[in-house]
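User: My collaborator and I are trying to settle a disagreement about how two of our proteins should look. Neither of us wants to argue from intuition anymore, so we agreed to look at predicted structures for both before our next call. Could you fold the first one, then the second, and keep them clearly separated?

Assistant: That sounds like a sensible way to settle it. I'll keep them separate. The first protein:
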Amino acid sequence: MARLKFKRYVSASVCAGIACISQACTSAESVGSLAPSRSNVSTLESSDSSSSVSALFENNPRAVTSVDIALALAVLNLPSNLQANDAAIIAAASQILGTTIDRQRVNPDPSAASVNFVDPTAIEIADPALLLASSRLSQEERTLDNLAIQVNKILGANNAIDREKIVAIPGGISESIVVSGNCTLVAAINAANLDTEVQGCPAGNGPDTIELRSDVTLTDVDNTLIGPSGLPVIASQITISGNGEIIRRDDNAPEFRILLVDDDARLTLRNVVISNGFLGGDRVELDTTGGGVLSRGGTVIIEQGARVVGNRALRGGGVYAQAGIDDTPEVVIRDPNTKVENNTARAFGGGVYVVNGRLEISSGAEIIANVAETAGGIYFIGNEMFITGDSTRIARNEATLDGGGIGIQDGLANISDGVVVANNNAARFGGGMLVNFTSARLGDVGFFSENEVNFSGNTAVSGGAIFFDSRGRGDLNIVNTRFLNNRLGVSNDDTIVPTGSAIFTVSSDFSLNSSCIVNNDGVALANVSSSLIDATDNWWGAATGPGPDVGAGDLVDGNSNVGGFLRMPILGCPARN
């Protein structure tokens, strides 16, 4: 990656809820009002370029500078007992920049909107917005693009930084590798992996960001390390960023997935689309997995509106992740408008398949309209799965056998904080979710909250919303969860009896509390185990409690303790129709 150094600007305050430097401190809550000002610019450089830098900034009042970043990083990386020590900050920032910072005057007027330094080599600590932005990103994520995005979120639209006008001087903060002209996406990935110039692309250096400016159509196989892939193996820390650009396999191209992430590597996809990867074989090996993205022990982050759409494979139609030689894989899918959709797996995990790794889906991301034989949306085996965040949706996925939305086996799964699992369908068991041989936690502990988990409109022959069978290897605990309008499908197998439109449990290691179970088909809660299960303190849609033995609410069948049922709806739970 090419490297840039950016001249600094001065600004009013010196802290953003992280560390107070010098004589002034501004809380994180008030950062948004502090727009950067450069009416009087003082500069810093090891050369005698002060006068020329002022001219560079004359028509660029909102450029982010390398000194700002260096100071912010210095504060973040110093021990807490040194974070208010000017000398320590200057020394650490100088080391980051590779040039000496001479700070003979510090923040002479903390109340001023801008500071006119008498000494042209004097500087003040980073703008508080930039300091706060740096604190929100990991070390490898602190690229210029990411910092600019975070600063703009903090400052708001009226004070947004113009990323296109940033002044560049050799050395300093990383610049993106732009895919343009002779610098193709294949060459850009190789340049980032090898930290050397490749076919018109500048050399990478540490974590790299590759910027797309147009769609990319792949026509040939790049490598066959683990089956065919259309792009070079991701072997370092690489972000591919765009503005909705599509990376797709040509319809007439041979079979290949789009991307492969190797051990100890990290791929971040930001506002790009991964599409039309295809692996058509029936072999069970890794070379037929991950139509869009395969991770063998690496980390995959899909965020900021990125989408994985219309890919196909035997397992993990959209994304597949499995432990590598040395590392455990991690898949993170987050942010509004980030989607894994319309992918297909002939066996397991139409959208996402993670085995012996960690899976996080959060902050409004969506897993929608994927199809598989088992686990149409998500298939998870082992370690940890977290699905959280208001507006995060698992919806309209389909399984031709079991687990329409989610299939879980082994490990520990947590679903909380307003997640919606809706309108998924399975031909047999678990329209919304299938839980086998493992433990799961649904909802946030406590009495009814606004951000309940919501299972609605899911369909299966048994367990329209949830089918649970731990075989003694785990438990299912549900609190603060809504089960509304889930349905029983039509059975094509005489051995499968339609029942448990909300929940079907084969296991006694089960509890359902402080939840809302209303307007579900037939028997809503079916317990076919021989032991008593705990289903207390719930609203069943009627003040008289659940039917048929107690009241007029949704029906319960099997050995269940439904005592202490709620006698009035809470927080918008409806009455039974």
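The second protein, kept apart from the first:
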Amino acid sequence: MKFRILPCRFAWAMGFRAVLAIALWSLVVGSLALAEVRNPHGVAVIIGNKHYPHRGVPDVDYADRDAEAFKRYVIDVMGFDPTKIISLKNAKRREMLNVFGSRDAPMSDILAKLDPKGRSAVVVYYSGHGVPGLKDGMGYLLPVDVPPREARNEGYPLELLYKRLDELSKADRRRRAKSVQVFLDACFTGNSYGGFLIQGASPVIIAAALPEAIAEQVTVLTAAGSKQLANWDEQAQHGLFTHHLLDALYGKGDADGDGRVTAVEAKQYLDDYMTPAAWLARRTEQTANLLAGTPKVVLSAAAGEGFPKRPVLGGEVRREEREVVSRSPTPTDHAGVEKGLGLDRGAKVLVQRGLSSLRFDAGPADGLFVGKTRAAVGAWQKAKGLRETGYLTREQADTLMAAGRAERERVDDAAFARAKSSGTVASYEAYLSSHPGGRHAGEARILSAKAKERERIAVGRVFRDCEECPELVVIPAGSFMMGSPSQEEGRLDREGPVHRVRIPKPLAVGKYEVTFEEWDACVSSGGCGGHRPSDMGWGRGDRPVIKVSWEDARAYVAWLSRKTGKRYRLLSESEWEYAARAGTMGPFHFGETISTNEANYDGNYTYGRGRKGRYRKETTPVGIFAVNGFGLHDVHGNVWEWVEDCWNGENGDYEGAPNDGSAWDTGNCGERVLRGGSWGLEPRILRSAFRSWLPAFIRSHYSGFRILRTLTP
């Protein structure tokens, strides 16, 4: 017996190779009689991704054989109807999304085949490359048309797979699976011996954690443990795990001779045969792992006199398999059978939508079964191995209507997502016009009303919510390039990379930095922890409050929120820079240089072609310098302004930062970001892009803050 150990597939940059095989399946296991009956309601998805056309990405040599062998097992042992098997070779991203669903759409291909009475068992098998996200470290299945470097964006995440399985096991009773079983023959590390390419070696680390909610319904069996190698059997031309797993499921794993192979028995068989085989062949340790809510769940059961003999691939299709494939009814009057179904126009529209979603051109969804629709029905029947009549049986109509409903929901979801992304009255009205009975219609009406209220607040309007509240200016939604270009004088690495940020909604931002007068009002009313910071002898009133920490600033906005019933908060870092720039792209909102007639800073220093100026050595009253394009004062100098974000990264750069205007709420949250510079610093630090940080509890005479009020709930 010959073995080789295959290199990890996702390590594309180093030429590594690996094989990922995943089987998800569901089986009714209520009694011993299960072994003696076929499973007419079972649904299977079998994927073999062998050929990857991207340069430097090796083929998965035995993926097609693994998939074919597993298909034979599903037919021979589990008794599935071949017409209920979705078999994909070299599956592309769109095909995998159709099967497993996306974050916004259900697994339409599987749902279309589920028994409407909820009796379906589901089996899914995948053999192909697995990759890690280069930045998030998560595991992804790799479609053949996706380069490994794009796995994070275009691969199929295991996390989403688990989520979809959770939904499948918890769906309404008419569309749910009784149980789900998962098999992983996988490599997700990107390493091998010494980090070099060694033919046949693939270290495997599986973080096989299941969502808590599906623990009872799901069984998971993985090929190897942490930092182990996944091996192949060249003589059998199968993955070592898959080869021995199939042996176990064809009956060799039935340790107690009761005609059933449980998950525990399969695991024991792999320990007894696969693990020693890996060690004897390559001196590598490979031990299967089992996670099961019900460890004694039955994976396979004998039928009739016993388990069938495991076939050898390469011969003709078995006679009994041919009989199963062709067993669909063939009445003479196909048109009469379809007419007897009593399909109304709505049902016919669903059939047409279902055909179109499965990429069969059925023409317009008008409820008329002529021309293209008849041709599409015939083409679909042929593709599924059914008798090609162009007319529907009850089961076929139900399958296509289910696909049509799934497609209708997908289109509805996508239209509503576009409306929400725009967030305007017009976008919601457009959705309601095209989907008056859509499943998001109620929410769309509510959001449309809120959008109308929001749009009544004019950009540029100045207001305050109470006598003691800070004055606010409404700034528009928009987008900008955050950070500084490499040629900007005084630039630091932590100001990059420059990236586009979208501010999706108008915001009400403090016209001035919060003053002592406003802070003292909070303290006088019992808020702000009773903290009365020193003014350093410079004066209180309309000077910016100083010697307040990030935690103090948060206490102030919490007090404002309670007092007004509105939502006040600190600005995110990206909101701050957007507000400070006010549409400009230079170092300062007023140009390429700065003077002490424009801001309060240490005038002993210059920037660009600017001149030295006055050093006041203290804060100045807010509002004595000119506003920026959004009507805000003192965004450069006077006091540092705390923002909401945690400090991130060894170099503190923007790698991984949000681009939607939200705060970066992960990272070193014991330290928080400060922006704008202060009265005692040189002008380069006052630039719009300059970033700094301090521990959240520090109270400095250089630091204050500015506030924001959201305009919608």
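Some points you might bring to the call about the second protein. The chain has 17 helices and 28 strands. Residues 139 and 159 are 8 Å apart (CA to CA).
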